[in-house]
Predict the 3D structure of the following.
Amino acid sequence: MPELPEVETVVQSIRDQLIGNEFENIEIRWPKVLYNFSKSDFLRNLAKRKIERVDRRAKFIIIGFNKSILAIHLRMTGKLYFQNNLPQKKHISAIITMSNGNYLIFEDTRKFGKFYYYKSQNYLNNKLGIEPLSNDMNDRFLLNVLHNKKRMIKALLLDQHIIAGLGNIYVDECLWKSNIHPATISNKIPEKKIIILCKTIKSTLKSSINAQGTSIVDFTFLNGQSGKYSDQLNIFRKEGSPCPKCSEIIKKKKIAGRGTHFCPNCQVKQY
């Protein structure tokens, strides 16, 4: 599933073509792509209105008008890109015709991606946790959250109600860089390691955004371009390979319900 860096990459790739433009029409090829509204709602509330902003909130792409928003979640295999002619590809869920004649294409092989309409962004803001690249995500915040909860750190970092935008790739990478075992109970982690973890989360996400995200199986942007951060991954999907820090063999185990990669030597569960 595309995580924060991948969604941010998509946002950056489509923003300039959207701001100041307008939706003209929408063709629905997969009916379930519209989660909480209909085509007539789209035409009545979103079409022929000037697009004022294109942002990211957690793993959502936000296309903002005066107050209302179209929020798009890519889920597992969603791709959002522009094309100047109607696509002949399979797996197209929706095609939005723009006022300038271009087409905004939503392609989704597994059909889990969704469009959401909200009268304002308040609903999403209230539902989702803190943005990990915001100033509010700091040592004090993370210390308070981790020490006031008794959960496995892997599960806590994946909880979108607490920190919004992290997923399996970056949680595994950040815990490895911070020498924290993914099954460690959060309130047992020493303050020094939490401070390192906070800095690591920010630096890892920024590095991935600079590399235009991670493409392992499905993620592409700009109609086929791949992210380059895959070349910088240390342990994710590296089970059976030597750890870059100590040469111990990287393991994969189901933790917090997710396939989890870790080094049994660098990430000893001590607490």
